[in-house]
């Protein structure tokens, strides 16, 4: 059985934990340069505020003080994300960090009652540790766990946990779901499915996998199988509508030196950026994670993250340089590191990148030659980092994040104030 | 006392504690520095990763994912040495609040006080005679944010 643990309204909730005056209030978080709504508190959703471009009605709510706004604060979100993930890893086996606010875990071998107890314990513990609420869906496959999670969020009587042990029991729920709400299915595929008379997720589940493979792709066929309860390990993630992406995993053996960890991080940045390119997306902030193996009780433990902001880019060199700088910030010698990873935030379509004063990347991006060159350069990575570091972090960007809350958890000068 | 965030605090509407969840102490940080004998002369190469300088983090942070820092404004806790400008280490994982110094949220503001229960009512005590205790009434929006475990004071 696979559990999907997902933070409720993650960005908005991170803001609310440190700004009690925002708790229970309609709140939206804006993208970098404050152009788009990228996250909403549940109260903002109830006001009917949508994602995407700031509309007149949003401005109206702000003017009438019904709606609070904040610029995105990736230092805060990145740190809170690692706190959630660390807490999950303390309680659950085989946690797979999937995005900034989602993780999968393997709950195989537990009775339904034990799963329920464990999931409620996880919810309580994450809430206590971080102030954030999570919802948990459990099912035979990742795709069904997503469906269960959706139910856990929508039905208050479930108290945030939905366990679907019987795959057949999903029928009615799938019937009420549009295909576009199924994990991994974008708008385009959803429209094409409608053209074939497949309107809801149940119809998709019951479609002939071979026909689906022929008409669509092997990826969609796997989704069909997953909806039927057959776990497909090679499941591809949905990339079209994602807000962030994550890449990283544990090393084959513990690494102690910064210079040994650099190539691993470069590798993950390359993977992440390749995925970024695939859907013509760009990012404006990243978080690097570095941690020791918490299950080895006899070694010194350390788990850290650092975030870097830069003007919106899909440039591998810039992103890798930024990631390496973040790594330098987090790295401290004397520990046996086990895992490194990178998280790209605030993904936008490339055509939406605001023109930057510091645009220096035209003509060198996205080419296979670049990938090749970067691999060559990795050997001498230190020099390269220094060369490109000066380009990132335009102050132009910062000026536009007018409504940003302090970096409450990552900066000594910005700690929350408590009245004594 | 209907604080929408965080909702699952084990406090009843009258302020008494309805349920204390089990605290799990199985996952404190190991401090390998103390696990090994102090070496005289050169240490064994196999143990070189244990020979770090003392790290304050290992002393003041027991539960990294639940530990936050906050800065104090005001003098209501000065009799126990917490004064304006101090940095406090707050461990949110500590679930027994009675008689501890806590960061609480009262009507959307952070405050630091001593948590006590008197006749089934939560009373937040100051540590300075000039400041009255705060009795938590059902109308107040109240929650405990975390327990203060250390004070960092610049002298």
Describe the 3D structure.
With 420 residues, chain A is an alpha+beta fold. Chain A has three domains: 2-163, Reverse transcriptase/Diguanylate cyclase domain (Alpha-Beta Plaits, 2-Layer Sandwich), CATH 3.30.70.270; 167-228, DNA polymerase, domain 1, CATH 1.10.150; 245-391, Dna Ligase, domain 1 (2-Layer Sandwich), CATH 3.30.1490.100. In chain A, strands 6-7-1-8-9 form a five-stranded mixed beta sheet. In chain A, strands 10, 11, 12, 13 and 14 form a five-stranded antiparallel beta sheet that branches. The radius of gyration of chain A is 22 Å and the shape is globular. Chain A has 16 helices and 15 strands. Chain A has helices at residues 10-18, 42-46, 56-63, 74-91, 112-130, 142-154, 171-175, 187-195, 201-205, 209-215, 218-227, 258-278, 316-330, 368-378, 381-389, 395-400; strands at 2-7, 27-30, 36-40, 52-53, 68-71, 96-99, 102-106, 134-139, 161-163, 245-255, 281-292, 303-313, 337-345, 348-349, 417-419. Chain A starts with a strand and ends with a strand. Chain B has one domain (17-24, 47-152): Umud Fragment, subunit A (Ribbon), CATH 2.10.109. Chain B has helices spanning 32-35, 56-60, and strands spanning 67-73, 87-91, 101-106, 109-118, 121-125, 134-135, 142-152. In chain B, strands 1-2-7-3-4-5-6 form a seven-stranded antiparallel beta sheet, with no helix packed on it. Classes of the chains: A alpha+beta (420), B mainly beta (155).
């Amino acid at each position: 059985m696979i559990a999907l643990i997902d933070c409720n309204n993650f960005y908005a909730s991170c803001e609310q934990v440190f700004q009690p005056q925002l708790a229970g209030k309609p709140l939206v978080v804006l993208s970098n340069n404050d152009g788009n709504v990228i996250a909403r508190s549940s109260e903002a959703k109830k006001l009917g505020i949508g994602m995407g471009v700031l509309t007149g009605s949003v401005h109206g709510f702000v003017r009438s003080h019904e709606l609070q706004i904040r610029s995105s604060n990736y230092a805060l979100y990145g740190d809170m994300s690692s706190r959630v993930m660390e807490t999950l890893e303390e309680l659950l086996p085989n946690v797979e960090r999937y995005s900034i606010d989602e993780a999968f875990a393997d709950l195989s071998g537990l009775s339904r009652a034990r799963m329920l107890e464990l999931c409620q314990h996880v919810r309580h513990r994450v809430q206590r540790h971080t102030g954030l609420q999570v919802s948990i869906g459990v099912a035979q496959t990742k795709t069904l766990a997503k469906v269960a999670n959706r139910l856990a969020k929508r039905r208050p009587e479930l108290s945030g946990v939905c366990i679907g042990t019987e795959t057949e029991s999903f029928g009615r729920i799938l019937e009420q779901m549009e295909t576009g709400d199924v994990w991994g299915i974008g708008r385009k595929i959803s429209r094409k499915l409608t053209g074939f008379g497949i309107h809801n997720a149940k119809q998709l589940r019951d479609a002939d996998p071979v026909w689906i493979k022929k008409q669509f792709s092997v990826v969609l066929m796997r989704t069909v199988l997953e909806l039927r309860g057959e776990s497909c390990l090679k499941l591809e993630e949905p990339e079209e509508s994602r807000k962030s992406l994550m890449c990283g995993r544990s090393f084959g053996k513990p690494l102690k030196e910064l210079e040994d960890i650099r190539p691993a991080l470069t590798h993950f940045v390359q993977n992440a950026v390749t995925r970024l390119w695939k859907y013509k997306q760009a990012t404006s902030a990243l978080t690097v994670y570095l941690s020791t193996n918490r299950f080895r009780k006899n070694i010194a433990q350390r788990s850290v993250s650092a975030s870097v902001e830069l003007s919106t880019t899909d440039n591998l060199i810039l992103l890798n340089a930024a990631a390496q700088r973040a790594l330098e910030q987090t790295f401290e010698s004397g520990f046996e590191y086990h895992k490194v990873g990178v998280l790209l935030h605030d993904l936008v379509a490339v055509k939406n990148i605001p023109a930057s004063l510091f645009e220096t990347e035209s003509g060198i991006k996205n080419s296979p030659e670049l990938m090749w060159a970067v691999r060559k350069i990795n050997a001498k990575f230190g020099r390269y980092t220094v060369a490109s570091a000066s380009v990132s972090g335009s102050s132009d960007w910062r000026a536009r994040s007018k409504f940003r809350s302090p970096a409450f958890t990552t900066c000594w000068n910005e700690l929350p104030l408590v009245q004594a | 006392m209907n604080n929408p965030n965080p909702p699952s605090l084990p406090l009843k509407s009258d302020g008494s504690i309805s349920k204390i969840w089990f605290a799990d102490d199985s996952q404190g940080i190991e401090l390998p520095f103390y696990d090994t004998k102090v070496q005289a002369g050169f240490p064994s190469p196999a143990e070189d990763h244990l020979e770090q300088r003392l790290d304050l983090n290992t002393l003041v942070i027991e539960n990294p994912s639940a530990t936050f820092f906050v800065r104090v404004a005001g003098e209501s806790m000065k009799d126990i040495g917490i004064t304006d400008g101090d940095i406090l280490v707050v461990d949110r994982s500590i679930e027994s609040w009675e008689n501890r110094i806590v960061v609480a949220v009262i009507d959307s503001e952070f405050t630091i006080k001593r948590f006590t229960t008197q006749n089934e009512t939560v009373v937040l005590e100051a540590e300075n005679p000039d400041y009255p205790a705060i009795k938590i009434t059902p109308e107040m929006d109240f929650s405990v944010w975390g327990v203060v475990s250390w004070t960092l004071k610049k002298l």
